[in-house]
Amino acid sequence: MIDRQIQRMLDDIETEAQYTRKMIGKNAFDPGVMAVMSKTPRNEFVPNTYLDAAFDNGPLPIGHGQTISQPYIVALMTDLLELEADHIVLEIGTGSGYQTAILSQLCKKVYTIEYIPVLADAANARLQRLGYHNIESMTGNGYDGWPEHAPYDGIIVTAAASHIPQPLIDQLKPGGRLVIPVGRPHLYQELMLVDKDADGEVNIKQVLGVAFVPLQGEHD
Length: 220
Ligand code: SAH
What we know:
Bound molecules: S-adenosyl-L-homocysteine
Shape: globular
Strand content: 25-35%
Number of strands: 9
Helix content: 25-40%
């Protein structure tokens, strides 16, 4: 039963990737990313009331006004990071921990920051219980990044920012990639891919229109 639901979710992600191929610059996501999407139990990350919709290709409420991201968006953002087995990744916006679990299976270590303490605690306990052990989590304001473990090969922000936080650019390794939705909270944002080249020069590319919950605690 669950296998069939997961297969439908993977098919829906593939269909949406094809629809958006002009924006994302490819027809399909990396097979390694899709393999991890296929073996990560999204049903464990959604509230019981939404179990029936756990494998739908849409966001779902997780309480406290927050959401678990749409599977296609999780696959897209993960794909954009081009992760390798020895990479160290910083995630801002742990939420349910679903994106964290996906990342952790494609790199060496994930540091993840969540603003809302009860969500951070629940996600941390869930990730431990499910056996994802290469993750360190913290409650706090991800706007400032996590300087102690910088620089990062990849940084992912899963809440909408009004601008790209300078601390995150500073904490990106040369050759590293940052994926972040930038725009007006609750309305419409552009998913941005920021890459820092070997000389430390930063390039920014718009990928796709998206809708995320707001990044809280922004400052300059
Ligand atoms: N990737 C998560 C998305 C959760 S929604 C998932 O798929 O479950 C975005 C999350 O970002 C929310 O949990 C919200 O509380 C958190 N958030 C918002 N502002 C933040 C900040 N400044 N630092 C860290 N987390 C933040």
